[in-house]
């Protein structure tokens, strides 16, 4: 039978989460739930549960590079999500390969601080991320803890979010989604920036639950998923935030683990989407 169709593919480049809510597990749950097809590259093996991270085992950079090259030569992604990249060597190999594919949108969640508050990245890696990965990313999605790391300033209100966003945009970003979920307010505010300033402000009611493990991973994976489905950036961000809000709400009363529990990614799973197979046979070719 002639193969006429393919699926919207999202490649996630991220760390492992044995407790299932974040990292590659959270990403693949999200991508599957949106009707897309997930592929993955493992960057690290954190030893963690819902209570926090106990250790991090690094995957050798040459193995990460081989994983990435092997996937890209066979299955062309329609969008890429990057999560945990915690060493300078990993930044270098990922950037070197992805810069060969400038037509594929990239959503980068600069994972620096876990939901539990555990710091996941060495300070020396931050400059490398800013100089090599920020320019490649279509969108970066830091939370307020990560924005504080990037700016050196604590962020305690929406006015400070605007100042922090302006500072981060000066670091070479194309688009920035600054997430305000950590503010002590009943309303969640997030700001989407381009190089001219804030272009969209998103607000929603905050759900009071500690089942937030992997919420940042889920949001960035969902944005990549909606981009793969053909949405423009602002609509992809809006739809992804609606998806995460529902996933938190539907999992808020569920006990998984003793700490920060996961979202309910499959509250309303979509059938996997079929689309016409492109003429280039869905094989990634460096530009």
CATH architecture: 3-Layer(aba) Sandwich
Structural class: alpha/beta
Name the helicity range. Answer: 25-40%
Write down the Rg.
Answer: 18 Å
Strand content: 15-25%
User: What general outline do the C-alpha atoms trace?
Assistant: globular
Structurally, the number of domains stands at 1
Secondary-structure element order, N to C: EEHEEEHEHEHEHHEEEHHE
Count of discrete alpha- or pi-helical segments spanning 4 or more residues: 8
What is the distance, rounded to the nearest whole angstrom, between the alpha carbons of the first and last residues? Answer: 31 Å
The CATH topology name reads UDP-N-acetylmuramoyl-L-alanine:D-glutamate ligase
The CATH superfamily title: Ribokinase
Low-confidence stretches: none
Question: Can you describe this structure?
Answer:
The chain has helices at 23-33, 61-72, 88-98, 123-133, 144-151, 158-169, 215-228, 233-251, and strands at residues 5-6, 9-14, 37-42, 44-49, 52-58, 79-82, 106-108, 139-140, 176-179, 187-194, 197-205, 275-276. It has one domain: 3-Layer(aba) Sandwich (UDP-N-acetylmuramoyl-L-alanine:D-glutamate ligase), CATH 3.40.1190. With 287 residues, the chain is an alpha/beta fold. A five-stranded parallel sheet has the order 3-2-6-7-8, with helices on both faces. A three-stranded antiparallel sheet has the order 9-10-11, sandwiched between helices. The chain is globular, with a radius of gyration of 18 Å. The protein starts with a strand and ends in an 11-residue tail after the last strand. Its EC number is 2.7.1.49. It holds the Pfam family Phos_pyr_kin. Pathway: Cofactor biosynthesis; thiamine diphosphate biosynthesis.
């Amino acid at each position: 039978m002639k193969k006429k169709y393919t699926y919207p593919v999202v490649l996630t480049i991220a760390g492992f989460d044995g407790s299932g809510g974040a990292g590659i597990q959270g990403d693949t749950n999200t991508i599957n739930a949106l009707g897309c097809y997930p592929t993955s590259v493992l960057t690290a093996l954190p030893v963690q549960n819902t209570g926090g991270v106990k250790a991090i085992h690094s995957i050798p950079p040459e193995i990460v590079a081989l994983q990435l090259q092997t996937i890209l030569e066979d299955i062309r992604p329609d969008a890429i999500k990057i999560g945990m990249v915690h060493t300078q060597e990993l930044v270098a190999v990922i950037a070197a390969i992805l810069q060969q594919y400038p037509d594929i949108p990239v959503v980068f969640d600069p994972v620096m601080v876990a939901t539990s508050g555990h710091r996941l990245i060495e300070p020396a890696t931050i400059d490398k991320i800013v100089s090599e990965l920020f320019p490649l990313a279509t969108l970066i999605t830091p939370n307020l803890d990560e924005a504080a790391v990037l700016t050196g300033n604590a962020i305690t209100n929406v006015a400070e979010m605007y100042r922090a966003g302006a500072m981060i945009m000066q670091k070479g970003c194309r688009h920035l989604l600054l997430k305000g979920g950590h503010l002590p307010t009943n309303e969640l505010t997030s700001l989407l920036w381009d190089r001219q300033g804030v272009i969209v402000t998103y607000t929603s009611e905050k759900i009071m639950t500690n089942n937030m493990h992997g919420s940042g991973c889920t949001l960035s994976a969902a944005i990549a998923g909606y981009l793969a489905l053909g949405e423009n950036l602002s609509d992809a961000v809006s739809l992804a935030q609606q998806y995460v809000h529902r996933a938190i709400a539907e999992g808020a009363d569920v006990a998984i683990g003793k700490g920060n529990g996961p979202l309910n990614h499959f509250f309303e799973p979509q059938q996997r989407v079929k689309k016409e197979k492109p003429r280039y046979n869905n094989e990634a070719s460096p530009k």
